[in-house]
Amino acid sequence: MDTAGSAAAAASARDGADKLGNRLVQLKGARGPFSGSLIDYRTPCTASEDTRCQIVASIPLWNEFFCWLELELRQLPGVGSQLGLVHVRNICHVRPTHRQMRQAAAFLYWLLKTHRCVASVEIPSKTDDPEMAKFCSAVLCNVLYGNDFVKSLDLKLSWPVQSERFCEVLLSMKRLEELHCEVSSRDPMFPKAISALLRTSATLTMLDFNSPLTDNAHAGLLLNALKANSTLRDLTLNSSAIAEEPELFVDFLSATVFLKRLRVVESIDHISDDALKWIFQGMLRNETVSSLEGQGLLLYGESVRMGARMLAQSKVLRSVRLLGWLSVQRTVEEEMGAGEYSDTACWLGAISKNHTLQYITLSVSIWTNECWEQFFRVLSRHGSLKMATVVAGEDERCRLSDIAKKLEEIGCKEKVSVVASCNGDRLSLADCKNYSELRASVRTQNKRVVLPVYQELATFPPLTFLSLKIVGWEKELCWLLAQYVSSTSTLQRLDLQLSGLGFTTESDDWWLLLSQSFLRNRSVTDLGLGVDVYPRKGRECLGEAVARSKTIRELRSLTWLSSAGLSFLRGVRAGISENYALCSVILNPLSFYQDWTAEWFFVCNTARRNSGYVARAAQFLKQARFDTPCAAALDRVNRHPALVAELSKVLSISVADALSAVRQRFRSIEGMHEFMRLAGVVKARVTCQPRDDGRAQLDALDEHCWSHVRRYLQLDDVAWHCRSSTNAM
Questions:
Q1: What keywords are annotated for this sequence in UniProt (predicted)?
Q2: Is residue 174 helix, strand or coil?
């Protein structure tokens, strides 16, 4: 890139920044569109290595404006980061006016220009809105130019931008560590920009660039840049890059000593028969990649044999996933051979020789039933392999019954997870009892076939995810489902969509029964719910049950009728302020109505509050920050098992380890002197002046008495505006 062009792009960016900056005058006196609260948009950034920014207290108010851009400001758990802008598709179903768009753009400009605590930014794509496209271009070229604090950038670009300016902005970001770039444009400047970034960045560790490359010059430029890079640890690539320059890809994979995770996705426009062959060939020479994933790639004779060599010889692979549209393609010569998929059988011996592989995920179509039986025997005595996941699509599900019988005979069920879809009513007990994930659509006209399955749901021990769409539902089937939800101790995720004309009985007791099952359940942490039947009584009790749940940490809205969904959300809102479990809410953008907005935002704010506790507690545990808000968050998390479980997910450790870590760190803040110091009441320790009557003072309380007080007292109970540092009471 020439210097003159770079200078011109930089000058243009500065001019654009001045124009966008002029819009800030529109923010004076701005009030939240939902709360009506006045926002102080000029709040300066007060974040440091050990203190949070003061803007955290007003995140809900900022999000009332960011919703017009489909963005949400959230707290992050990572070390050295505090806030992130996350794209939430269709978070506000109402189409914003141009004034609202300009106002939101000004808020975003102010945030990114003045708050160094924003470490992650997602830029949404809005092809149907020219105003949004113009805004996104302004953000890229004006706001992010020269940024030295954003570490993660997620770009979804399907609108035309000035490519050279985009390249200049990307290269000007000084601390970029993660880049997700989804580009539908065929502009050749995008691979050039990514290639230049790979050659110049000293901080980039993760790159997700899965856009198709249809020119070998662009593929060669990218692969040579990858080969020269020494910082990348995680790479997602489109298979077209391999198809255009296979030898270069093998050279890169052979030479890299830094890459740990490789993911290759299919190219919709460029079907490559050889991608897996080149991947496996490169992996034979690679000594660092421990996680390999391929999606939608073709598998045939030569690639099968190369894959067998890789599996047998690799000493670093820990995880292999081959999924999606994976096909076993056979040549004419192979079709003349004996036995279907005879080539893939060679993987069995290769896997048995591998002593480092821990996780493998394969499509059921990769082997015959006899080969699966042999694999289960290998698995039962394999020293390192911990879990094998078998994935079956709708057309492959019929094979699972026989495979399940073989698994039952061999007896290594605890090391096998089965994932299957069933869009009809063709369920059988023989199939289902080994499923860890089951997706099914049930119509009650086939009640005689499916009823035995639901009567036996409690006997499906591996089942952790159940997704049901019940059409034309009726009382008996629904009562069985509620009974199962009440009693299961293994189900972690439940998606329930109730569709059709409604009950075939006049009873509405089902709603109460289902809501009670949510309250009794202690295992479901992720709930998706939708009701698109004509409303009757009882929808609010479902929402109330979700709000009162001590375990549900993620709530997803499926398909609702407007009035039914509004009743449900009102039920959730009624008790949500006392909820300390819900950390995430996800909206179905195809089923959202304008009259839901106020209720939905209230629920979202509670989820953000709870996830904020977890994020700050994680930073306290990682010893990234020791300020009062982080200590108060740990205090809160320590009292709520659901937040401890969410913390374990954030830290990628077991719940038991998270609980142990929380309790150990809590000891450092539970004492009287530590509590009062963090609360801002004293500088070091509590010292009370003696009373004339000689009665005991606060500093006379022993540890046992203070522990009783602490059961009812949290750091957040001390009003922030009253916290003043003093050394005496």
A1: Repeat
A2: coil
The model's pLDDT over 631-659, given as tens digits with 9 standing for 90+, comes to 899 999 999 999 999 999 999 899 999 99
Identify the residue whose tokens are 């996705």: 265
pTM reported for the whole predicted model: 0.80
Q: CA 119, CA 423: separation in Å to the nearest integer?
A: 42
- 312: its two tokens: 């047998």
Antiparallel, parallel or unpaired: β 493-499 and 416-422 = unpaired
Cα 14 to Cα 18, 136, 160, 284: the distances in Å are 6, 16, 20, 49
**Hunting for tokens 């500065």 — which residue is that?**
14
Give the number of other CB atoms < 10 A from CB of residue 674: 14
Q: How many CB atoms lie within 10 A of CB 84?
A: 23
Q: What ranges do the domains of the chain cover? A: 1-176, 671-729
Cβ neighbours for 41, distance < 8 A, ≥ 6 positions apart: 24, 27, 30, 107, 110
Say how far apart CA 192 and CA 120 lie, in whole Å: 23
d(CA 508, CA 498): 14
Nearest to 728 by CA among 688, 675, 678: 688
Cβ–Cβ < 8 Å for 567, 534:
no
**From CA 462, how far away is CA 436, in angstroms rounded?**
5
Does position 330 have pLDDT exceeding 50, yes or no?
A: no
DSSP state of 401: H
